[in-house]
Task: inverse folding
């Protein structure tokens, strides 16, 4: 069974002085974005921030699922992501996604947690969708 997620964005005006708004199809979140927020570091959201949020959410769910399936369910998983965009030959390009995941998993050691996190990173749908990113880094820490 296919699951379809939707979102929309509307941009008004020229690139540098225009403005945009995006909204999740579910209506649970929306936000404004501009050239300045995306390319000049001004306060506000960007499409890359949304990629980072999606990747962190997907990784945490994939890791929870794999740990549960292995018989070592997590008490808590906290994932964060940083999406870096650079100019490559004059074109804005997402070059790096850094994932940091921390977990409380009774009965698991750091090595097993890191291995499970690496598998989740490799197999989560968002990681697979973003496979064209040059570098997807993972840092996994088991908490006690």
Result:
């Amino acid at each position: 069974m296919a699951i379809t997620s939707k979102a929309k964005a509307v941009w008004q005006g020229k690139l540098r002085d225009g403005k945009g708004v995006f909204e999740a199809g579910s209506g649970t979140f929306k936000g404004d974005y501009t050239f300045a927020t995306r390319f000049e570091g001004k306060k506000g959201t960007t499409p890359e921030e949304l990629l980072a949020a999606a990747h962190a959410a997907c990784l945490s769910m994939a890791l929870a699922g794999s740990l549960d399936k292995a018989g070592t369910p997590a008490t808590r998983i906290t994932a964060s992501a940083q999406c870096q965009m650079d100019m490559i030959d004059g074109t804005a390009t997402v070059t790096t996604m850094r994932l940091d995941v921390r977990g409380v998993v009774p009965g698991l050691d750091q090595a097993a947690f890191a291995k499970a996190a690496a598998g989740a990173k490799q197999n989560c749908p968002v990681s697979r969708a973003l496979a064209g990113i040059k570098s997807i880094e993972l840092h996994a820490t088991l908490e006690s």
About this structure: The chain has a mean pLDDT of 95. Strands lie at 7-12, 19-24, 30-33, 76-88, 91-104, 135-143. Helices lie at 35-39, 47-69, 110-123, 125-129. The chain has four helices and six strands.
